Amino acid sequence: MFHGSIPALLTPFKNGQFDVPAYQRLIEWQIASGSSALVPCGTTGESPTLSHEEWRSVIKTCVETAAGRVPIIAGTGSNSTAETIQKTQEAQKLGANAALIVTPYYNKPTQEGLYQHFKAVNDAVDLPIILYTAPGRTVVTLSDDTVARLAALPRIAGIKDCMELERFIRLRRICPPDFCLLTGDDGVAAAALAMGAHGCISVTANVAPDLSAALQRAWHAKDMESFARARDALDIMNSVMFIETNPIPVKYVASLMGLCTLEYRLPMVPPSAENQVRLRAAAESAGLLKQKAA
Length: 294
Hints:
Layout: E1 4-7, E2 13-14, E3 17-18, H1 20-32, H2 52-66, E4 73-75, H3 81-93, E5 98-102, H4 111-124, E6 129-133, H5 135-138, H6 144-151, E7 156-161, H7 166-174, E8 180-183, H8 189-194, E9 199-202, H9 209-220, H10 224-238, H11 248-256, H12 273-285
Parallel strand pairs: 1-9, 4-5, 5-6, 6-7, 7-8, 8-9
Antiparallel strand pairs: 2-3
Helix pairs in contact: 1-2, 3-4, 4-6, 6-7, 9-10, 11-12
C-alpha cells in the first residue's frame, strides 16, 4: 500500500506560530519531486510540542494541500491507548489516508501490552495503521512475533522500523505479502531495499526529495547505475542529518534553503556553531543550496 520515498515532514514555525504558507510550499515541492506519500505530525514535525489545535491544523493543511495526489499518513501515536484512538479517529475525519502510530513511550508496556494497545486501535478505527518502532526514543520495541500477530489484524498495514536491517528479511518471512515494510533510517535506506523493505519514511527527503525519490524508483526499476548514483549523493546529507537530535539538523538545512525560518519549539534548539558549519558544508557539497527559496 505504501512504498518509495515518504518524507516525515518538518513543521515550519514563524513568530511562534505554525507557518501555513511555508508548509504548503514544502508539500507542493515534495509532490513535484516524486515523494510517494507524506507524513505530517511525526517526530520530525516536532509533534510533541504541538497543541491539539496545531496538530489538527497541520494535518488538515497537509490533506487539503495534497488534494488526493499522494496519501497522507498522519502521526497519531501517544503513550495512552485512549488518546491514540481518539487522535486516529480524528485524523480520519480530517481526511488522512492512514495513521503512523509509535509504540507507547515511557510507560514501557510488555509485548502483550503492546499487542493489546495496537489491537484496540485496530478495533476502534477504519483506517490503515503503520506501526512505528523507534527504541532509541521510546525504550520499548515490537518483537518479531508481536509484529506478526499484529499483521494478521485487518487494519495493521505495515511498519516503520528503526532496528537492525536483518529484521526486514525476518518480517517478510512471517508477515503477509502485502504488509508494508518501511525503514525510518535514511542512512540504511538503500540497504533496507536489498533486505526486503518497500521504502523509507525519510528525514533527508525534506531537503532532498528528488534524490530520495530517485533512489527508490531506481531500485524498483532495477536501474542499478541510477540507484548507486542517488545512494552516493544522498550519503553526503545522511552523514550529517543526525549529528544532533532530529529535527535540529534538517530544519537548519531547510532554513538555509529558504524552506522555513530557523525556528524550533523548546526543548529543541538550533545546532551548535560547529555543527552549523558542518551542515552548511554538506548542503553546499550536495548542491542543495542551489535550490534556495525554490
